[in-house]
Specification:
- By secondary structure, the chain is mainly α.
- It has one domain: ABC transporter involved in vitamin B12 uptake, BtuC.
- The chain contains 14 helices and no strands.
- The chain is globular and about 65 Å long.
Length: 358
């Protein structure tokens, strides 16, 4: 009787398993749909609100005339047109930073990995400031190249420092190495800028992180980098899932562990550096969004990465809109808003006892 009962229970369990996958797929499909709608709504909100709120009709008029290459006579529609570039940049930058953070957390199996916390943002910023102050760099392409070099060198340095000592690389050691590196590099940035008034005036708001400097020419420089790095990240998702099981298991599944880590790390750093070159070092987006998305979608990176990109777009666009509304007639930089929101998240993560790996 026991054998029959066990067999029946096993059969019942096996019968239930096939229905679980479609249910999970439907749930994830709903989540993706909601995320896409949230991005669309956030874009409309960004175009509608600022120092001068506008109505739905003016939003439609401003967008339609922008598509036709016309300049509206209505001041509200004109305000909408002026907000289009910064809204596009906020969407792109938020998606790139969140995707970068999710990649870094997956590669290091470290819940505290984030471009800001690990010092990658600051390294990119320092390289750009050095280029402007000493090399006379003034083009968007030059900023991008310097930011990529600075970000890659900083990421490599932080990883080496975080690996020193017993136990190898741990979340706490990486976070401490990143915090120390960020402090040191930030001091160097200040030391370069303070005696140089012209450079300081140009980049004092850029250092905080904002999307107000958006224009189509500079975005055209970084968009190819964001697209290539984003595609690499999404293609690498399955291999990164295998890495989460451990290096030995990943090798057994046919994954080239070293190669996938290097390629994914370069993609993550490129996403962060491209955004930093144009918008400055915006922190905490790569930390907050993947953690929030993971609670909804689970750890499967095939879903986590694209959903993080959508969530990052929503977060940074909302942060920019909030900054424009509460700072009217001026604005509060988006980097300040994300830091204000992200600090409690960092404290909550640090208080968790089980944080050795994702």
């Amino acid at each position: 009787m026991t054998s029959v009962s066990t067999t029946t229970a096993s059969a019942g369990s096996a019968a239930r398993r096939p229905s679980a996958a479609p249910a999970q797929g439907r749930r994830r499909g709903v989540v993706v749909t909601v995320a896409v709608v949230a991005v669309a709504v956030t874009i409309v909100v960004s175009l509608s609100f600022g120092s001068r709120p506008v109505g739905a009709a003016q939003v439609v008029e401003g967008i339609s005339m922008w598509f036709r290459g016309q300049t509206p006579t209505d001041i509200g529609a004109l305000a909408v047109q002026s907000r289009i570039p910064r809204t596009v940049l906020a969407v792109l930058a938020g998606a790139a930073l969140a995707l970068s953070g999710a990649l870094m957390q997956a590669i290091t199996r470290n819940p505290l990995a984030d471009p800001g916390i690990l010092g990658v943002n600051t390294g990119a910023a320092l390289a750009v400031v050095i280029g402007i102050a000493f090399l006379g760099v003034s083009s968007a392409f030059g900023y991008l190249g310097l930011a990529l070099v600075g970000a890659l060198l900083t990421a490599f340095f932080v990883y080496i420092v975080g690996s020193i000592g017993p136990g190898g690389t741990t979340p706490i050691k990486l976070a401490l190495a990143g915090a120390a590196t960020t402090a040191a590099l930030s001091s160097l940035v200040a030391a370069i800028l303070l005696p140089r008034q012209a450079v300081m005036d140009e980049f004092r708001y850029w250092q905080v992180g904002n999307v107000a400097r958006a224009d189509w020419e500079t975005m055209g420089v970084i968009v190819p980098v964001l697209v290539i790095a984003g595609v690499i990240a999404l293609v690498a998702a399955s291999s990164l899932n295998a890495l989460a099981l451990g290096d030995d298991v990943a090798v057994g599944l046919g994954v080239h562990v070293g190669r996938i880590r290097v390629v994914s790390a370069v993609a993550g750093v490129a996403l962060c550096a491209a955004v930093t070159a144009l918008a400055g070092p915006i922190g905490f987006v790569g930390l907050m969004v993947p953690h929030a998305v993971r609670l909804i979608s689970g750890p499967d990176l095939r879903w986590l990465l694209p959903l993080s990109a959508l969530g990052g777009a929503v977060l940074l666009t909302l942060a920019d809109t909030i900054g424009r509304v509460i700072g009217s007639p001026g604005e509060v930089e988006a980097g300040i808003i994300t830091a204000f929101l992200g600090a409690p998240v960092l404290i909550a993560i640090a208080r968790r006892t089980r944080m050795k790996a994702l």
